[in-house]
Amino acid sequence: MIVVGWQAVRLIMGDIGNPVMPVYEFVIKTIGEASGFPPEALDNWYQSYMVWCLGISAWVCAAMFVGIFGKVAARVVLVGWKRYWAENR
């Protein structure tokens, strides 16, 4: 979880990219085509702010995902699949 969370820091330092950037670019392109604005109209401080926020949020959410499923996997290994499901019920 810590290693995946560290990727948000690496994003801020500029070592890696934004994992949701292709999706964000597709949405911006679709909105631009639907609105009839030229592509340069959406290039502003708001777009760069959203790229940073979405990138940091994606890495933090990925870290939480890894942490939660890591706890589940550890419990399944410790007590077994059937007992894990019995505990959850």
Keywords for this entry:
89 residues; mainly alpha; 0% strand; elongated
Strand share of the residues? under 5%
Q: How does the major sheet shape up?
A: none
Question: C-alpha Rg, in Å?
Answer: 19 Å
Shape, please? elongated
For the termini, the CA-CA separation is 27 Å
Helix percentage: over 70%
Count of distinct structural domains: 1
Briefly note the structural class of the backbone.
Answer: mainly alpha
**Mean model confidence by pLDDT:** 85
- Summed up, the helix count is 4
Total DSSP E strands: 0
- Low-confidence segments, given as residue ranges, are none
> What is the element string, with H for helices and E for strands?
HHHH
Structure in words:
This protein is an all-alpha fold and 89 residues long. It has one domain (2-88). Helices cover 79% and strands 0% of the residues. The protein has four helices and no strands. Helix 1 runs antiparallel to helix 3 (45-79) and helix 3 (45-79) packs across helix 4 (81-88). The longest helix has 35 residues, at 45-79. The radius of gyration is 19 Å and the shape is elongated. The model has no long low-confidence stretch (mean pLDDT 85).
